Amino acid sequence: GAFLGEPQLEMQQVFSGQRFPNVVVTMRGTVLVTWGSGHVLSRRSEDGGKTWDKPTTIARPGFQGGGTTVDETTGDILAFVEARHPPAPLTVYRSKDDGKTWQAGKVTVHPDSKGRMPSMHMNEHGITLRRGKHKGRLLRPSRYYAGKNARDKWPQHFTNAVYSDDGGKTWRTSKPFPAMGTGEATLAELADGRIYYNSRRHWASKGASPLRRWTAWSEDGGVTWQGLLFCKVLPDGPQNSNYGCMGGLVRLPVKDRDILIYSNCDSPSGRDHGTVWASFDGGKTWP
């Protein structure tokens, strides 16, 4: 609660020259940003984002895999780096000192039940589950590229998630998100222990729209997804293209309240007009 107060908008440039940000808050209250499409960097702020330390190199070369995750059990931070735009080899880096230094670790990622190996780029940050029998589980969104990042493969693409019950050493892959053509997703744990999942969509079958976001829920800690819904309120990037745009999502740490904050561009064309929406009922409505 150190940074609660009257709402205000402050803007500053933290990185330049590359792409693909993730933002997390560590167990010490440090704001940590990861970034990079040619090499992956991090920066830290210990005063709520007012000032930032110098960039730290996580991997050079490297391609941001998104899903930066704070393990709330140990305080470790995990950064996912792919060798290039995926599908590509993955390295997971771990920081044990609040994001000051990073070391490559040995991890095992298991494919899904049909042998499909997930890719990590470019999803929102991961989370540590805080409730129920899966408390302590690490969970982050991921995706399946069907072998290639190509437009003719979009109907075979889908988002999913990977989860770890041993602090990030071993990861298992969830069932697919129940909509094909999806890629780049966000998730949040709700007060009742369910997981809310919100995804970008590049392609949609006839009669479905890729211009707004698609959502689903999990009742088993992120292993399976049900209740696919088309969210008419939330835009999926510029509305003159079905290409979509990565969105941001976070649940505010208010006890027993499912206040979600979603961000994306609200624009008829072009990636501009960055806008924030709030849901006070766990993603059911966005007033």
TrEMBL record:
What Pfam family does this protein match (any one)? BNR_2
Where does the UniProt annotation place the signal sequence?
none
Where does the Sialidase domain start and stop, copy by copy? 22-104, 134-286
Q: Which CDD domains match?
A: Sialidase_non-viral (cd15482)
Q: Which GO terms describe its cellular component?
A: cytoplasm; membrane
Extract the Gene3D superfamilies matched here: 2.120.10.10
Supply the InterPro entries for this chain: Sialidase, Sialidase_fam, Sialidase_sf
Entry's Gene Ontology molecular function annotations: exo-alpha-sialidase activity
GO biological process per UniProt: ganglioside catabolic process; oligosaccharide catabolic process
Q: Which SUPFAM superfamilies match?
A: Sialidases
- Full protein name: Sialidase domain-containing protein
